[in-house]
Design brief:
The protein is α/β, with parallel strands linked by helices. It has helices spanning about 15-30, 45-50, 65-70, 90-95, 110-120, 145-155, 180-200, 215-220, 240-245, 275-280, 340-345, and strands at about 10, 35, 60, 75-80, 100-105, 125-130, 160-165, 210, 230, 255-265, 270, 295-300, 315, 320, 335, 350-355, 360-365.
């Protein structure tokens, strides 16, 4: 890694593989398909590893991702953001590549609009009804009559159909204990199962009952009635997931390679060349004292430095790193574990993949945009 220009995005293949295997085993134990969410990785190479020997497809967060993965041969794709009629032509274009692109919506007005738009395009278009299982971002409550109304609008049309229900328990990220995550996981499961039963009672088939979120996937006590789960950040882990108990520091597969470019003896801190543009401005992972920062410093081998110092302040291209036991040499290479893997990875076009020895063995491209 000494030959790399810094900052650079580093992906530890062994840790990635271990994280993927752990979640695959978890899905098998729960008796559900694994449909990994690629919104963090946005990489064909990672997706191929994540879906190896898995029955489920993948989840994406943008239509650019859907197109990217469809062109690479992925055919079972869930677009996990509420659809709008103006995007339906792009959906049709992805489906023309051979993909079955599943869509979501959560209100009758949208259902009517997409049905009208679908008449002008080559379908069919297939949907999951989004259920609110407690996050209160989007979705319908499971007992809302609009769940059935949406389903009937779609099933009564010529170009659209319903495949089931889905939810995302993003509020699991707010939990302060594993027991709290388990309670959220059960509420998530119960919400979509109840909505599925409503559809089936109205003679509307509901083959897919889908849940999401890395914490709930890891800690759900059971997923009776659920058919698939869609975790995403589990692949890489990050400091936020570590702070809520979803991974250990030894599981963190993603880091940013940086160089020490200054030492302020008067303030006892190093400066590094990874700032806001390299790490992102996400401050969502408090340390043991509840203080927020922008990432944890590790040595070139990915071992946290003594005292686990963190980047406490960033400018555009500078990171402020106090708390070191001694002054580092200028040019010293460090690795920074990010707070939020999704936000940090989005700053880069590719990963430098390393093996167990830290040797760079490959470069994997990422997709970007919407």
């Amino acid at each position: 890694m000494q030959d790399l220009r810094t900052p650079a995005l580093i992906l530890d293949r062994a840790r990635l593989r271990a994280n993927l295997d752990r979640m695959a085993a978890r899905a098998a134990a729960l008796g559900v398909n694994l449909r990994p969410h690629m919104k963090t990785a946005k990489s064909i190479d990672v997706a191929r590893m994540a879906t190896k020997d898995q029955a489920g497809g993948i989840t994406v967060s943008t239509l650019a991702e859907a197109d990217y993965f469809a062109r690479a041969g992925f055919t079972d794709i869930l677009y996990g953001v509420g659809i709008t009629p103006d995007k339906l032509a792009d959906v049709a274009a992805v489906q023309a590549l051979g993909a079955d692109l599943k869509l979501i919506l959560d209100n009758p007005d949208c259902a009517r609009l997409v049905v009208a738009r679908a008449k002008e395009l080559s379908g069919p278009f297939r949907f999951l009804i989004e259920i609110d299982s407690g996050q209160h971002r989007t979705g319908l409550l499971p007992d809302d009559p609009k769940v059935l109304e949406c389903a009937r609008i779609l099933t009564d049309s010529d170009g659209c159909d319903v495949l089931g229900v889905m939810t995302h328990a993003g509020h699991s990220y707010d939990c302060s204990s594993i027991d709290a995550v388990r309670r959220v996981a059960e509420a998530e499961r119960a919400a979509v199962v109840a909505a599925a039963e409503t559809l089936r009672a109205a003679a509307i088939p509901c083959p897919i009952v889908s849940v999401g979120s890395t914490p709930t996937a890891l800690y759900a006590e059971h997923l009776d009635g659920v058919t698939e789960m869609r975790p995403g950040v589990y692949m890489f882990g990050d400091l936020f997931q570590h702070s809520i108990g979803s991974c250990g520091l030894d599981d963190l597969a993603l880091s940013v390679l940086t160089s020490v470019n200054a030492w302020r003896a008067d303030e006892g801190r190093a400066m590094v060349d990874a700032g806001a543009m390299a790490l992102s401005l996400d401050r969502g992972a408090p340390d043991e004292n509840g203080a927020h920062a922008f990432g944890m410093a590790a040595d070139i081998h990915g071992r946290p430095l003594p005292g686990q110092p963190r980047i406490r302040q960033v400018n555009q291209e500078h990171g402020f790193l106090p708390g070191l036991e001694e002054a580092p040499d200028i040019g010293t290479r460090l690795r920074i574990f990010p707070n939020h893997a999704c936000a940090t990875a989005a700053k880069y076009s590719h990963y430098h993949v390393i093996d167990e020895t830290g040797r760079i063995i490959d470069t994997w491209q990422r997709t970007t945009g919407w």
